[in-house]
Amino acid sequence: MTSDGLITVLVADDQALVRAGLVALVGGQPDLTVVAEAANGAEAVARTRETAPDIVLMDIRMPVMDGLEATRRIVGDATGRGPRVVVLTTFDLDEYIYDALCAGACGFLLKHAPPEELLLGVRAAAHGGALLSPTVTRPLIEAFTGRRRMPIRPPAALARLTAREREVFDLVAGGRSNTEIARALCIAETTVKTHLGHALEKLGLRDRVHAVVYAYENGLIRPGEGR
Questions:
Q1: Contact at 8 Å (CB) between 168 and 196?
Q2: Interstrand relation of 107-110 and 84-89 (parallel, antiparallel or unpaired)
Q3: First to last CA, the chain
Q4: Of the given ranges (17-31, 51-65, 119-133), which has the lowest mean pLDDT?
Q5: 68, 71, 224, 227: which is closest to 150 by C-alpha?
Q6: Which residues lie below 8 Å from residue 50, measured CB to CB, with a gap of 6+?
Q7: Which of 2.140.10.10, 3.30.70.660, 1.10.10.10, 3.30.565.40 would CATH assign to domain 144-217?
Q8: Residue 24 has what DSSP assignment?
Q9: Nearest CA to 195 among 215, 217, 167?
Q10: What burial class does residue 116 get, using C-beta atoms within 10 Å of its C-beta: 0-12 exposed, 13-18 middle, 19+ buried?
Q11: Which helix (H) or strand (E) segment is 145 a member of?
Q12: Which fold is adopted by the domain 7-131?
């Protein structure tokens, strides 16, 4: 963020009209500012390195370099708390979304979503939040991990979690919100956040979206299970 608290955003989309609309929408908010634009993935990577935005709004399907490779490079470049990439797509089950999440994107937003939803997503990402609600996350992950062979044994890293951390992690992976988890376990929401933070750190995961991906990839939850 800037010294006066503004969330800095880079907009990457190969369609000039779409890009201009996003720039106008984001730039018109008192707490957001657009620091750069890009018409393809290569430009997005270069401009991200130059401007170090808080958020990169990344279209997936672009010329020269697609958004998937651009996301991988931006996240790979980051040291410490680097830019958070939010994928933009026209379809809610775009085949590339799963790969974008694995590449390091913190979530995705639909281009045809209401403006207030997109702005809410940008702000949530800037403050470390997840952009996929359980109703969107599970069908998405199920659609693509369901095609992959699940491992027979859970990863050894899970043994590093305390009993409570594993309990919280499993509930997050099942699509529960912090409020629902706190209610189910009879603990405070702040305690849920603490346990989840510890679990994510021990497993080397970025956020709760990637916790869901991890759970499905490692057979902790099978497609169709969850809430």
A1: yes
A2: parallel
A3: 36
A4: 119-133
A5: 224
A6: 36
A7: 1.10.10.10
A8: H
A9: 167
A10: exposed
A11: helix 134-145
A12: Rossmann fold (3.40.50)
Strand, helix or coil for residue 4:
coil
SS3 54: coil
* pLDDT, mean of residues 54-65: 93
Two structure tokens written together for 131: 């952009």
- Structure tokens given for 38: 């890009």
Q: For the chain, give percent helix, strand, coil, nearest 5.
A: 50, 10, 35
**Encoded amino acid at 49, one letter:** R
pTM beyond 0.85, yes or no: no
Per DSSP, what are the bridge partners of residue 32? 7
Cα 47 versus chain centre, distance: 20
Which of the residue ranges 30-39, 153-162, 172-181, 199-208 has the most confident prediction, judged by mean pLDDT? 30-39
Query: Residues in the chain, how many?
Result: 227
Whether the pLDDT of residue 64 is over 50: the answer is yes
Average pLDDT of every residue of the chain: 83
